[in-house]
Amino acid sequence: MEGRKGDVSTSREAAATARRKRPTILDIAERAGVSKSLVSLALRNDLGVGVQTRERILQVAEEIGYRPHVLARALRERRTMRLGVALTSLENPYHTEVFAAVEDAADGAGLSVLLAHGKRAGGHLEERINALLDLNLDGIVVISSWADPAMLQTVSRRAPVVMIGRSLEPVDGIDSVNNDDEAGAALVVGHLAARGHSKILHLTSSLRPAGLARRHGYEAAMRAHGLEAHIRVLARTRGGALQPDLDAALADGYDAVFARNDVEAADVLDHAWDHGLAVPTDLAVVGYDDSMLARRARPRLTSVHQPRQAMGARAVELLIERIDGRLEDRHEVLSPHLVVRESAPQA
Amino acid sequence: MEGRKGDVSTSREAAATARRKRPTILDIAERAGVSKSLVSLALRNDLGVGVQTRERILQVAEEIGYRPHVLARALRERRTMRLGVALTSLENPYHTEVFAAVEDAADGAGLSVLLAHGKRAGGHLEERINALLDLNLDGIVVISSWADPAMLQTVSRRAPVVMIGRSLEPVDGIDSVNNDDEAGAALVVGHLAARGHSKILHLTSSLRPAGLARRHGYEAAMRAHGLEAHIRVLARTRGGALQPDLDAALADGYDAVFARNDVEAADVLDHAWDHGLAVPTDLAVVGYDDSMLARRARPRLTSVHQPRQAMGARAVELLIERIDGRLEDRHEVLSPHLVVRESAPQA
DNA sequence: CTGTTAGCGCTTTCAC
DNA sequence: GTGAAAGCGCTAACAG
């Protein structure tokens, strides 16, 4: 906007040359000697376009490198064939693994997937979700226990929402799919009890729904086994460390730890390494999620496997059902299973 | 399309009730008793709208929960204020860390970021990039050494592209920012030599540009230190394991390993654990990237730090410059530094 | 089978 | 100050 008009238009032209204007169906129509609607129909394989004509049109489209303008199309169709995924913990491998599962499923359904990453604090996640939805996506899957129910409800007025993971109460108007956290926790306690452990600590840093459910599952299972429940709630600092130090938490002579997820189990493993504690001899450790962290850890981590492929697939199906008009809410719960590895091997 | 018209419209109505039609500027105009263009102007703070009127319009917009229709706007403006990021290895923490850096930078510039994840094989990445670009994003940053130069060039005709990471030759028409891999490798060799190591193995699984550059840097540095270079090229299986087994690679009595990246360094650490090798006493290990894996590993991994924050920020700046019309290519190289930890401590 | 036409929601001259 | 009108690229009636 500075300089003379001449300058501006010159530089515009230069830029335009560098980045050529994209061809439209009109260009195809012209080159193929048909009308623009014909092209539109041919492009979308509408029957009722002469085979010859269609052939020619497709060919021309190919030639001039035509790409449909999805924005224009979406403006008319009110459908983008795109799903959004909102995440808060890109740094937790389990979450990216779930994302990959959703992506696989969507791919299979001919939908493409966009990811938005929001920080947990403030309204950041909501902002990102809204920015995503501004693109008129057909639906959105939220992978985050940090999503506020009220916020999700607001969002769901714009597009169908399915949440992978747990919310305290089912949220009106949004579907969900998660694993049975209570059952998962019971699996862990059962396994540890069978190994002969009795001083089993449950370590958690989260008062979020999934964490709570695992904790309740742990308590119930301990009771069922006639064992006393021990719980330590730690906070996670900005830097990612657990506070107060694990030292204190582990000082009471526990012989096994069930951590709320793999990340925290890995923290325990690290702590054991740093303090010369032998795992599983001195301390058995079990995680939750069975993420890359569990496979990668040394000793390898026994962990509860969440059926992420199935969860991702189901999430996409639920979304599609919603898009097609389903009105009732659906909440699916899949069963986890325990993957036994070195950090708490079979008895 | 089936059933009588009445049925259809009834179910339509039901769905419409559940998911209300979004308000448009026309709704605002009506409610505020002005014309639609007035609203548009007011919404974008165009001076030349009565203060009173503007006030009222904004208020009404707020009231009815108006959200601009970015697709419609983009259709006119040819600008979406959105950037795309294309990735191939969501499972490599370094890549997600770079993504987060890009996101931070974009946030700062008022741009929002969408992520697309492509598999490395076939044309999958290209497909995903094109799907992303179909949304008329203003630019795209590619974080993948798997991106084919010719493909990138094609893509860059649609929107500005900047690549974070290395390509063999600078690609015409696209910008890049990366770290100096040769210098990074030299840092490693220098450090290991200073610790008194002489049988230093370089382990790599990649014949991609960044891997090659590190390898060349290693060779040159070894030569400079009067040491003999030893290189093992391993393949990675679908499952993620290195093939053939590390056993063979490490059988020749090396006292230090410089791995191509943290993922492979972690493989070496795991291997050492599995075989009772003490690190760093029996074997010193150094990685590259200084990702979460390095911080998390036990012993903690000495690794070359790529300045990802700076790289992400620079990438976004380069993109913005392009959007504003820059035509010459730019290739930036930032300096890495070594982060010394337990797997190869200070001499 | 083919072409014409009217928008989708928004921005932007250009008159009033 | 304000409003009317054209048009971004595409789809979907509807007439020929």
From TrEMBL, chains A, B:
It comes from the Bacteria. Coiled coil: none annotated. PROSITE patterns: HTH_LACI_2. The keyword Transcription regulation applies. Gene3D superfamilies: 3.40.50.2300, lambda repressor-like DNA-binding domains (1.10.260.40). The keyword DNA-binding applies. Residues 1-20 are annotated as: Disordered. Residues 23-77 form the HTH lacI-type domain. InterPro entries: HTH_LacI, LacI/GalR-like_sensor, Lambda_DNA-bd_dom_sf, Peripla_BP_I. Keywords: DNA-binding, Transcription, Transcription regulation. CDD domains: HTH_LacI, PBP1_LacI_sugar_binding-like. GO terms for molecular function: DNA-binding transcription factor activity; transcription cis-regulatory region binding. This is HTH lacI-type domain-containing protein.
